[in-house]
């Protein structure tokens, strides 16, 4: 089990194209991967689920992966998101 | 990988949607279009639909999800489907999804190697897709 707490910097939030990139990256891994924002959780391997969260700029998100390649999956996702996110300050909980 | 066929009365819609799909889901997703009539008018054409479906099956698609706009597109598609035998039909899924949203959702699932049923399910989920934020 691995987790990342992130803040969305992209002024458009996690909109269609970056959301699709995240889903496609997640699809390369066996681990179950979820994204949580404001208490709502979605399967990162489903575009409709991710888009359904309507993740806005400034949102605090938690990416969680659980499985044989969970650490690698999160590393790939953070690389994919690049400048669209920054790590949240230590101990910050998603609100 | 599962392929997609996009059917519209307008070739501009079908071709533009293919561009959107390629940008969001990647250029490697197999997408064929059947937009407009043979003489360039608005409408649908069973032979064009048949050719589009055939190109995905012959192009190595594990199966094909077919999305269409409305009205007579369904009639043309029914005619086109008669050109395929039972084994080929088993590799085809006709989606009730709205064309644009269904194509994008289906293509993203196809791009990660989802099965035919999973891609069809992704397309179907477009019918209940949230667009504007709830809050």
Characterise this structure.
The complex is a heterodimer of chains A (95) and B (135). The longest helix of chain A has 12 residues, at 70-81. Chain A is globular and about 35 Å long. Helices cover 31% and strands 28% of the residues of chain A. Chain A has helices at 16-26, 47-52, 70-81, and strands at residues 2-8, 32-37, 40-43, 60-66, 85-87. Chain A contains 3 helices and 5 strands. Chain A has a domain at 12-59 and 68-84: Histidine-containing Protein, Chain: A. Chain A has a 5-stranded antiparallel β-sheet. Chain A is α+β, with helices and mostly antiparallel strands and 95 residues long. Chain B has 135 residues and is of the alpha/beta class. Chain B has a single domain (3-128), classed as 3-Layer(aba) Sandwich (Rossmann fold). Chain B has 6 helices and 4 strands; from the N terminus they run E-H-E-H-E-H-H-E-H-H. Chain B has helices spanning 11-25, 46-58, 72-81, 86-89, 99-111, 116-124, and strands at 3-8, 31-35, 64-68, 92-94. In chain B, helix 2 packs across helix 3. Chain B is globular and about 45 Å long. The relative contact order of chain B is 0.20. The A-B interface holds A 16-17, 20, 23-24, 26-28, 45-48, 51-52, 54, 56 and B 23-26, 104-105, 108-109, 111-114, 122, 125-126, 129-130, 132-134.
Quickly list its features.
heterodimer, A: 95 residues, alpha+beta, Histidine-containing Protein, Chain: A, five-stranded antiparallel sheet, 31% helix, B: 135 residues, alpha/beta, Rossmann fold, four-stranded parallel sheet
Brief write-up:
Chain A has helices at residues 16-26, 47-52, 70-81; strands at residues 2-8, 32-37, 40-43, 60-66, 85-87. Chain A is of the alpha+beta class and 95 residues long.
What's the arrangement of secondary structure elements?
The complex is a heterodimer of chains A (95) and B (135).
Chain A lengths: L1 E7 L7 H11 L5 E6 L2 E4 L3 H6 L7 E7 L3 H12 L3 E3 L8
Antiparallel strand pairs in A: 1-4, 1-5, 2-3, 2-4
Helix pairs in contact in A: 1-3
Chain B lengths: L2 E6 L2 H15 L5 E5 L10 H13 L5 E5 L3 H10 L4 H4 L2 E3 L4 H13 L4 H9 L11
Parallel strand pairs in B: 1-2, 1-3, 3-4
Helix pairs in contact in B: 1-5, 2-3, 5-6
């Amino acid at each position: 089990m691995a987790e990342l707490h992130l803040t969305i910097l992209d002024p458009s939030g996690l909109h269609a194209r970056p959301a699709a990139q995240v889903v496609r990256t997640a699809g390369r891994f066996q681990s179950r991967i979820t994204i949580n924002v404001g208490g709502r959780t979605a399967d990162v391997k489903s575009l409709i689920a991710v888009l359904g969260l309507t993740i806005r700029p400034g949102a605090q998100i938690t990416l969680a992966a659980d499985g044989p390649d969970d650490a690698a999956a999160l590393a790939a996702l953070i690389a994919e998101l690049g400048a669209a996110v920054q790590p949240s300050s230590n101990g910050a909980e998603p609100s | 990988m599962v392929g997609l066929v996009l059917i519209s009365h307008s070739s501009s819609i079908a071709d533009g949607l293919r561009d959107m799909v390629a940008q969001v889901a990647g250029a490697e997703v197999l997408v064929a279009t059947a937009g407009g009539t043979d003489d360039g008018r608005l409408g649908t054409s069973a032979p064009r639909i048949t050719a589009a479906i055939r190109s995905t099956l012959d192009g190595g698609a594990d199966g094909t999800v077919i999305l269409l706009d409305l009205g007579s597109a369904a009639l043309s598609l029914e005619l086109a489907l008669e050109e395929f035998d039972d084994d080929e039909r088993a590799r085809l899924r006709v989606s009730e999804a709205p064309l644009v949203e269904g194509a994008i959702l289906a293509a993203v699932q196809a791009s990660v190697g989802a099965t035919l049923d999973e891609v069809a399910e992704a397309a179907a989920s477009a019918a209940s897709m949230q667009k504007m934020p709830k809050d």
